[in-house]
Amino acid sequence: MKTRLFDVRRQTRTDKTTKRIFLLGFSVLALMTVFFSYNLRVYAANVHMGSASYQSIAGQEFNVGIYFEGNDNERMGHYEAVITYDQNIVSYVSGANDGGNGRIIISGDSPDGGRVRVMLTMRADMGGDADIRVESATIRSIEGMNLSVDELPSVPVHIDAPLTEAPDYIALNGEKILGFSKDKNEYSFAVDYTDEMIFTAPEGYTLTHDIECLKEGSNEVVLTVCQDAHTPIEYKLTINMSSESGKKDTGAKDDDGNAETEDDSEVSDDEQKDNVNDIDDIDFEIPDDLNDETNYPQKDYLKYYLVLIGFGIIIFIILLVKLIWDRILTSEDSIKRDIKVGRGVIGTSESIQQNDMFDFDDINSIDEMKREVQRNSEEIQMIDLLGDEFEEDRK
Length: 395
Prior knowledge:
By secondary structure, this protein is of the alpha+beta class. The chain contains five helices and 20 strands. The protein has helices at about 1-40, 270-280, 290, 300-355, 365-395; strands at about 45-50, 55, 60-70, 75-85, 90-95, 100, 105-110, 115-125, 130-140, 145-150, 155-160, 170, 175, 185-190, 200, 205-210, 215-225, 235-240, 245-255, 260-265. The longest helix is centred in the C-terminal third of the chain and has 55 residues, at about 300-355.
């Protein structure tokens, strides 16, 4: 009975210790979660457009709003962004620090730490579809700390305009395309080797193409033809250019009156040295932005988060070791108590036998023997009770 009582008490203490460990571990994890969430909130900012899409008519101006703000009431300081657009469809008019050639630069400071709106004025030059998007953005808090911008917006722009009327002809390097027709948009023809690629059309037309120069063999060219404030039309051209002979006519003649030629493949050593020197004279400038570490979001909070996790793991290991050690000590104490109790019982029995507590010579009847056994049993129970009280007092 006494052994069972010790086991119940030991199990109760173990359960209480286990509950304390789990409660402490849960508290540490909750604190780490709150700390990490707080840092995520501090370092977040937002850039967005004033509308999901824009539409205008060729020849007219329209406005595009760019908004800068910190998330969760984060006070914003300095901001800057680069906006890109299709300069063949729209053009920049005003509203930014600088703009033109398909690129707009915005920068400034929030006067009160709140949201800032920058209103750009754009002009629809010709009909078609294009995108206006934020290519890059940097936002700093009012204390000067970088705020991370997770998403850079982009919005579509549709410009309505009448379709460009097909020209009467299109020429390449002064030679008109044979078989050209206003009802046809695909052509295939051959040309001699040339370093030039100049397309022309009647006055009032603007021509653009998607490659810079022709190469030997087959070339796929998309030629865009447009009249002012009209939707452009496209021509798909397949141009086959012959190979270069490797000889150039110098205009000089030999003694027999034949034209002298010059082999381009042979270049003198002096010319090669000059070319190398020209390359050495080129100054390669590295933008200052690449060396500015403040342009990148700071992630100092990650270091503190890892330190806090490590601290929590150490506490958990210490508590786990303490729990194991307490169990070992409790088991040892229980074994010792069981041994003592056993020894006490044995000693009591031996003492009873040595003192001739069961003296059957003095017992004259069965009833007297029963009373003697009952009396000695009561003495043994009294000894056990005194032992229990002694153990309770010691605790």
